[in-house]
Amino acid sequence: MRNSFTIVLSGEAGQGLQTLEDLIMASAGEEYHVYSSKEIMSRVRGGNNTVEIRLATEPVAAYQETIDYLFLLNDHAYDRLDSRVQDSTVIFAEESFLKGHEGGHKQLLSLRAMAKALGNPIYINTLLFGYIAGILDLNQGTCHDLISDRFAALKPAIIASNLKAFDEGRRASSDLDLPPTIRKTSHPVPLKILNGTTAVGLGALAGGCNYISSYPMSPSTALLVFLSNHARDFDVLVEQAEDEIAALNMTLGAWYAGARGIVTTSGGGFALMEEALSLSGITETPAVIHIAQRPGPATGLPTRTEQGDLNLAVYAGHGEFPRIIFAPGYPEDAVRLTQKAFYLADKYQVPVMILTDQYFLDANFQMAPFPLEEAPLESFVVKTDKAYLRYRLADHPVSPRGIPGHGEGLVKVDSDEHTEEGLITEDFDVRQLMNDKRLDKESLILEDYQAAELIGPEDYDTLIIAWGSNYGLVKEYVETTDRDKVAFLYIKQVFPLHDSIRDYALAARQVLVVENNATGQLAALLKLHLDIKVDDAVLKYNGEPFSIEEFEAILKEALL
Known about the structure:
Elements: E1 4-13, H1 17-28, E2 33-39, E3 46-56, E4 69-72, E5 90-93, H2 95-98, E6 105-108, H3 111-118, H4 124-136, H5 140-150, H6 156-172, E7 192-195, H7 196-206, E8 211-214, H8 221-229, H9 231-234, E9 237-240, H10 244-256, E10 261-266, H11 267-272, H12 274-283, E11 287-293, H13 310-315, E12 324-326, H14 331-348, E13 351-357, H15 358-362, E14 364-367, H16 428-439, H17 441-447, E15 453-455, E16 462-466, H18 471-480, E17 486-490, E18 493-495, H19 500-506, E19 510-515, H20 521-530, E20 536-539, H21 548-558
Parallel strand pairs: 1-4, 4-5, 5-6, 8-9, 8-10, 10-11, 11-13, 12-13, 16-17, 16-19, 19-20
Antiparallel strand pairs: 1-3, 2-3, 7-14, 12-18, 15-17
C-alpha cells in the first residue's frame, strides 16, 4: 500500500465529527494527499460513528484498516475498534474513556478540562482540531481562516473564542513525544476537497440539470440537498415529492415540457419507480436517475454500503427497452459521467442511471481542476411543424423530439403502444415496428460508449475488473504490488457492455472481478453479454468496504 498515515476519530452522532473532518481535510489537504471515509450507524444520536482520515505522500482513495492515531470522544468510542488497534496505535482520550481497554499506546487528552478552562464545553471540537493541527504541523493561518469561515455568521466574540481554543489545542500537542507521521508533499495545482455526492451534483449542473424531484432516502438525499442549496444560483426547480413513484413521474413530466430533470433515490425507492421507468421506455421520454446503493433487501443496513443493485438497474421495468447505466469510481468521473448522462438521455430519449453507493458518496477526495465539455449541453429538442409525428418511423431508431408550445405541431405521447402520431394502437405490425425502433437504439448507444480504463502494464497476465467505488482500492493495489503483470480494468459504463471489454479479458491468463455483493453481479453480466470467463470473484457484502490490507491478503491467495 501507499506510504500513508491514518487518523481515526470515534464518537457518537451529534458530537461534531463531520465538522472536524471538514476542517482537518481542508487544512491537511494543502500539505498532504488526503482521503477520508466514514462509518455511520443508523440513528440520529448515540451509537458509535467513526471518521478515517488518511494522509499520504501520493494520491490515495482506499480505506485502510490499521489505525495510527485514534481519538476517542466518549466512553464507548472504542467499541468495535479493538480489532483495528495495533501495538503501535496511539490512543488519545480522557482517562475515563481508556479504562478496561487493552492494546495500543495510550495518551491522556483532557479536552473537557481544557474546554472548562476556556469557559465552555462547546470548544472541545475546536481544541481537538488545534491539537491535531499541532501534531501534523498544519499551517496556522489556513486553520484560522477555516475557523473564521465556519463561524462567519456568528458574533465576532465567538469567532475569537474559537480561534483561542484552536491555539490552545495546538500548544497542548506541541511538546508531545510521538512517533513521526509522514513527510509533507506539494501539489502542483490546488486540489479541491469534495465528496462523491458533490461530484455527482456538479456533474448534474454541468449537464444542464434544472429540475429535481425526489423523495428522501439515505444515502441519496444528499444530492437533493446539494441541488436545493444551489437552486437559486443555477435556476434549478426543486420538488420533494410525496413518494418515489410520483418523483420519477414528475421528472418525466419535466423532460416532456423541455426541462432536464434528475431523480435521486436508493434501491428501495428505485424499486417503487419501475412502472415510471417503463413509462420512460415506451414514451421515449428522457430521464436521469441517480441510484445510491445500500445493503438490502428491504431496509437492510440503511447507512452502510454495497453494490447490490446492479441487476435491479439492468432489469428494472416491465417489457423491453434500452437504458444506459454509469458507475463512477472517482470524483472527476462522477462529474463527467453525470454530465454525459443528461446529454445521452436527451440524444437517445432513454433513461440513464448513475449507480453509486454510500461509501463513494460520503467519502472525501481530492480533485484537480479540469475543463468541462460544452457538447453535453447541446439540446436535441426540435421545433415542430404542423405535420409533426412524435414517433416517425422514417427516422428509425431516434425520432425527433418536440415539446409542447415549441412550434406548430401537437406533441402526443401515450403509455399504450402507439402509432407514429402517438395514438393508441393494437396493430400487431405497428407494435413490432415500434418495439424494434426502441430496441435498435442500443447500437447507437454503444457508438457513444464510455470506454473502460486500463491501469497498469499493457502486457498483463492477470486482469482485475472492478466498477464504482472499488476504483481507488484496486488502483492502489495495482500501482503498489510487487506483481509486475497485474492490471486493472475499470468499467465505468456497466450497461450496455461493449465488445472491447472482451478483448481485454482474452489477453489475460487470469480474470478476477471485484464487487461488493454476494452473487458477483457484474461477473454474471460479463458472462451473459460478452461470454467472458471469470476465474475468480472477490466479493464482500457485510456492509463495509474492502480495506487495502484485506484486499492485499485476498489477492495473495487468489492470484496465480
